[in-house]
Specification:
The complex is a heterodimer of chains A (326) and B (464).
Chain A: H1 2-22, H2 32-37, H3 40-68, E1 71-72, E2 80-81, H4 85-92, H5 94-114, H6 116-127, H7 132-144, H8 147-157, H9 165-172, H10 184-212, H11 216-224, H12 229-240, H13 242-257, H14 261-267, H15 278-287, H16 295-325
Antiparallel strand pairs in A: 1-2
Chain B: H1 5-24, H2 30-33, E1 41-46, H3 54-70, E2 74-79, H4 85-94, E3 101-104, H5 105-113, H6 121-125, H7 135-139, E4 151-164, H8 165-170, H9 182-195, E5 200-202, H10 210-221, E6 227-229, E7 235-237, H11 242-257, H12 269-277, E8 281-287, H13 291-296, E9 305-309, E10 320-328, H14 335-354, H15 356-368, H16 383-392, H17 405-408, E11 416-417, H18 424-440, H19 446-462
Parallel strand pairs in B: 1-2, 5-8, 10-11
Antiparallel strand pairs in B: 3-10, 4-8, 4-9, 4-10, 6-7
Helix pairs in contact in B: 3-15, 10-11, 10-18, 14-15, 18-19
The chains are: A mainly alpha (326), B alpha/beta (464).
Chain lengths: 326, 464
C-alpha cells in the first residue's frame, strides 16, 4: 500500500518537473504543500533528535570555541574581545614548539613501533591454523581494559629503581635498572610502548578482517610459483592490504596528534616538559591556573590543531569514499 | 484500516526530543534549587578526600547527622573533594563546586577580585568569636573592601619535615632525634637509602604546582624569597636567589652524588603521601597537618610516623613557610544558602576550637571511629586558646604526639613567612619543571633554568 502511494507521488513529481526542465528553469521548484505531502515533515521530525544531539553536543561547543578564541574569558566574569591576541600569545609561547616537537616525536615513535606491530600480529595470526579466535581475543583484550586502569598498571610496571616490575625482570638477566618515566629521553618511548600495547588490538582486528578478503587463489598461485611465507606476504598480502594500511596510517596520525591520556596520566608532561603534547598544553592553558584558566588561549590552540587535523580528515574521507565505491 | 504506526512513531520521536532538550537544559532558578521538597535548604559541602577509609566516612556521617539534628531546616549533601589546581579550575568554570568548598590561602584574594566568592561578611561577623581570630590568618580571606569572603576554617600550618621512624631505625638512626640542619638531612637520607635499597631516603614533590611550592618552602628555610613585593605592591621575581640555587644544588647532590632519592621523581601531594605511607620515603617536607590525611586516605602505620620542624639555615631571613585552608561559598548562591553555610562552617570547622562542649563532642565522634584527634596545626585564634582546646580534648587525643615533640616543642617559636601573594600558583607551576630537570638530568644547568623561569615569572607578575 505504502509502496504504491510513494510510487504514484514520484510519478506525479516527475510529471511536474519535466516541463520545467524543458523550459530551462533548472531544478524543479517545490512548494511547501508538495514538501509536506512528500513526507518532508516526517523526515524533519525523525531528523530532529539527531539535530538536537549534534547541535548541543558538537556544533554548539565548536561555535563557542571559535568565539572564545577571540575573547579573554575565565567563564565566570564577562568576556572581553581581544581579536587575534590569543593566537599571537599561543604562537609566542616557547612551550608550544616543544609541545609540537614532542607530539611529532610521539607520532614518529608510534609509527615506527606501533604501526607494524598489529600488521605483523595479524599476518601471523592468519597463518595460525588452530585457535585463531583465542589469539584474536588475547590481542583485543588490552582494548577492553579501561585506559586509566591500564595506565595505572603500567605505571606500576614502570616504577623506577631496582624494585620496579620491569627493572626486576630485566635485572634477572643483568640489565637495568632503567629510568622509564623518570628521564627526559626515556619517558616518551615508554609512553609509546604502553600506548601501543593498549591500542594495537583494535588495529589487529581490522587487519584480520581485511586479510579475509584477500583471494585464496592468489596465495595458491604464488605457492605454485614457489613463493615462501615472506614472499607471499610481500607480494600478495601487503599489496592487497594497501588501502586499509593507508587508512589506518592516517587514522594513526590523527590519533597520535591528539595524544593526551598517556602523558597526562603517566608523567603530567614531565620530566621537565619532555612529554608535554599539544593537547596537554591546551589542557594546561585551560586548567592549570586554579583562579580560572586562559580559555581563550586553549581554544585558539584547539582551533589551530583542528585546522591541521582537518587536512588529514579530508584525506581520510576521500580515501574511504573511493575505497568503498571501487 | 489506517495504520497508527506513523503517528505513534512521530509522538515517540517528539517525546524523545523533548526529553533530550529537557535533560540538556539548565537547572533553572538557583533560588528553587537551594530548597528541597521538604522545604529544607540543601547545602552541598566538602566531605573527605576521595578514597578515604570506611571509618573516616562513618565519622563524617555521624557529624552530618548531628548537624542535621541541630538544624532540621538544612539538608547536608557531602561531596568528596581534593583541592587540585586543575580540577578546581574546571569545577569553578563549570559551576559544580559544593556550596561550601575549601581553598588554599594563596587563592582567596584572586577569587575575591574575580567576583567568584560570596560576600560572607554579615554571616561571619555574627559568629560570637569573630573578633578573636588571628588577624594575619583572617586577612587571607578578606577583600580590599574589608569584607570577609573566605573564612579561615580547616587549618593553618607551617611546612614541616615528616619522617619514617622505622626507616630511621633500620639505618641506625635515632628516631627521637630528627635532623635539624640540611646537612643532617642529606647525611640521614644517604644512610636510609643505603640501608634500604629502592627506598628514597629523602623525596620532594615535583608535580601539579607542588614542586614549586616545596622549592619555595625550602628556599624560605634557607633565607631566600622567590618573589619580593615593595610597598606599592609591585612584585619582582627573584627565583634566581641564593636560597633557591642552594636548594636545587642540595637536591642535585642527593640525587646524583648520593643516589638517596629513590627512583620516582614525578610526585605530587597525594602520591608522595602514598609513597611515604607505604614506607618508600624516609623524609619529605609538606604541611604539618598531613598526618590526618595519611591516616584517612593512606592508612599509615602510626608507629612509623615522625614530625619535626623544617630545618632552618643560619641566614637572617630563614623562616618556615606557612599555608592554610579557607572555606568559601560560590558568589551566585542566595542568602538562605549563605546562612546555612555559615552554620556548617561554624559546626564543622570552628566552634570546636572555642567551645568546650563542641570540642569534646567532635573529638568523641572522631575517636569513636578511629580518626585522628590532635594533629598539630597553627592556632586559628591565640596560642592560649589553642592550648585550652588541647586540654579539652586531651582524653581523646590519639595521634602519636610523643613522636611529634620535635615539632610541637618548637612550633610556637618558629619564625614564620607567608606564601608569595601574587600569581602564586602560576609561579609554582613554572618551578615544577625546574625541580624535575634537576632530579632527572645530571647535567642540568641550575643557573640557566632559574634565569629562564625568572623571566617567565616576571612576565606573569607584570600582567598584574
Amino acid at each position: 500500500m505504502t509502496v504504491t502511494t510513494t510510487s504514484s507521488r514520484s510519478s506525479s513529481r516527475g510529471g511536474v518537473a519535466a516541463p520545467a526542465r524543458a523550459a530551462g528553469a533548472g531544478r524543479p521548484r517545490r512548494g511547501p504543500a508538495t514538501w509536506l505531502r512528500g513526507g518532508g515533515l516526517h523526515s524533519l521530525v525523525f531528523l530532529l533528535p539527531l539535530l538536537v544531539i549534534f547541535g548541543v553536543f558538537s556544533w554548539f561547543p565548536i561555535v563557542r570555541a571559535v568565539i572564545m578564541s577571540v575573547q579573554e574569558t575565565n567563564l565566570v566574569t564577562d568576556p572581553t574581545f581581544v581579536g587575534l591576541d590569543n593566537f599571537r600569545h599561543v604562537l609566542a609561547d616557547p612551550l608550544l614548539w616543544k609541545a609540537v616537537k614532542n607530539t611529532l616525536y610521539f607520532a614518529f615513535l608510534a609509527l615506527l613501533f606501533g604501526y607494524p606491530v598489529p600488521l605483523v600480529a595479524a599476518v601471523l595470526m592468519r597463518e595460525v591454523r588452530r585457535g585463531r579466535g583465542l589469539y584474536s581475543a588475547l590481542a583485543y583484550l588490552p582494548v577492553v581494559v579501561p585506559p586509566v586502569v591500564a595506565v595505572l598498571l603500567w605505571k606500576f610496571f614502570y616504577k623506577g629503581g631496582p624494585t620496579g616490575v620491569f627493572n626486576t625482570i630485566l635485572g634477572w638477566v643483568g640489565l637495568g635498572p632503567y629510568p622509564w618515566l623518570q628521564d627526559a629521553s626515556w619517558a616518551m618511548p615508554s609512553l609509546v610502548l604502553a600506548a601501543t600495547w593498549a591500542g594495537a588490538g583494535g588495529t589487529v582486528i581490522i587487519y584480520l578482517a581485511a586479510l579475509t578478503s584477500v583471494p585464496a587463489e592468489l596465495y595458491d598461485a604464488s605457492e605454485v610459483d614457489g613463493a615462501g611465507l615472506w614472499r607471499k606476504i610481500w607480494h600478495v598480502t601487503l599489496p592487497q592490504l594497501r588501502g586499509v594500511l593507508f587508512i589506518t596510517l592516517i587514522l594513526q596520525v590523527i590519533g597520535t596528534a591528539q595524544v593526551f591520556l598517556e602523558p597526562y596520566l603517566f608523567t603530567g608532561g614531565g620530566p621537565n616538559n619532555a612529554t608535554v603534547t599539544v593537547l596537554l598544553l591546551i589542557y594546561r592553558y585551560a586548567f592549570q591556573n586554579s583562579l580560572g584558566g586562559d580559555y581563550g588561549a586553549a581554544t585558539a590552540l584547539s582551533l589551530m590543531l583542528a585546522a591541521v587535523l582537518a587536512v588529514f580528515s579530508v584525506l581520510y574521507f576521500r580515501l574511504t569514499r573511493s575505497w568503498s565505491t571501487s | 484500516m489506517k495504520s497508527t504506526r506513523k503517528p505513534a512513531a512521530l509522538v515517540l520521536v517528539g517525546a524523545l526530543t523533548t526529553g533530550a532538550l529537557a535533560a540538556c537544559s539548565g537547572g533553572g532558578d538557583p533560588q528553587d534549587e537551594s530548597t528541597n521538597s521538604a522545604g529544607q535548604v540543601t547545602l552541598s559541602v566538602v566531605s573527605l578526600l576521595p578514597g578515604s577509609t570506611e571509618e573516616a566516612v562513618a565519622a563524617f556521617e555521624d557529624q552530618v547527622a548531628e548537624f542535621e539534628k541541630a538544624n532540621p531546616d538544612i539538608d547536608v549533601q557531602p561531596e568528596e573533594y581534593e583541592w587540585k589546581a586543575t580540577t578546581f579550575a574546571a569545577q569553578l568554570a563549570g559551576g559544580t563546586l559544593p556550596d561550601v568548598f575549601e581553598i588554599p590561602f594563596t587563592d582567596a584574594q584572586g577569587l575575591v577580585e574575580n567576583g567568584q566568592l560570596a560576600d560572607m561578611d554579615a554571616q561571619f561577623r555574627a559568629l560570637p568569636y569573630a573578633e578573636q581570630f588571628n588577624p594575619t590568618i583572617l586577612e587571607a580571606g578578606t577583600g580590599e573592601d574589608g569584607h570577609v569572603y573566605a573564612i579561615p576554617a580547616k587549618n593553618a600550618y607551617p611546612v614541616a619535615l615528616h619522617y619514617n621512624r622505622q626507616l630511621f631505625e633500620s639505618a641506625g638512626l635515632d628516631p627521637d632525634s630528627p635532623p635539624t640542619t640540611w646537612d643532617q638531612v642529606r647525611e640521614y637520607a644517604k644512610k636510609i637509602a643505603d640501608a634500604n635499597p629502592g627506598v628514597a631516603g629523602y623525596a620532594t614533590m615535583t608535580q601539579n604546582n607542588t614542586g614549586g611550592w616545596q622549592l619555595t618552602a625550602q628556599t624560605v628555610a634557607r633565607g631566600g624569597r622567590t618573589v619580593e613585593t615593595d610597598a606599592d605592591q609591585k612584585a619582582t621575581a627573584t627565583l634566581d636567589n641564593p636560597g633557591t640555587k642552594e636548594t636545587l644544588q642540595f637536591l642535585h647532590d642527593l640525587r646524583w652524588t648520593d643516589s638517596s632519592m629513590g627512583g620516582n621523581f614525578l610526585l605530587d601531594w597525594g602520591s608522595i603521601n602514598q609513597e611515604f605511607a607505604a614506607g618508600q620515603v624516609g623524609m619529605f617536607t609538606s604541611g604539618s597537618d598531613i598526618y590526618t590525611s595519611l591516616v584517612q586516605t593512606n592508612a599509615v602505620d602510626p608507629d612509623t610516623y615522625g614530625l619535626a620542624p623544617i630545618p632552618l639555615s643560619d641566614a637572617p631571613e630563614a623562616a618556615t613557610l606557612t599555608g592554610g585552608t579557607l572555606a568559601g561559598v560560590p558568589a551566585n548562591v542566595d542568602d538562605g544558602v549563605k546562612d546555612a553555610a555559615i552554620k556548617w562552617i561554624d559546626f564543622f570547622y570552628l566552634n570546636k576550637l572555642v567551645d568546650e562542649d563542641r570540642a569534646v563532642a567532635d573529638a568523641e565522634t572522631l575517636a569513636k571511629n578511629d580518626q585522628p584527634v590532635g594533629t598539630p596545626v597553627l592556632p586559628m585564634f591565640s596560642k592560649e586558646q589553642y592550648e585550652l582546646n588541647q586540654e579539652w580534648i586531651a582524653d581523646y587525643v590519639n595521634v602519636p604526639l610523643a613522636q611529634m615533640t620535635a615539632f610541637t616543642d618548637a612550633m610556637f617559636d618558629l619564625p614564620l613567612a607567608g606564601e608569595p601573594s601574587q600569581k602564586t600558583q602560576e609561579v609554582y607551576a613554572l618551578l615544577d619543571p625546574v625541580v624535575q630537570a634537576v632530579l632527572t638530568d645530571e647535567g642540568a644547568d641550575i643557573d640557566a633554568l632559574l634565569a629562564d623561569a625568572n623571566t617567565q615569572a616576571q612576565a606573569l607578575l607584570d600582567q598584574g
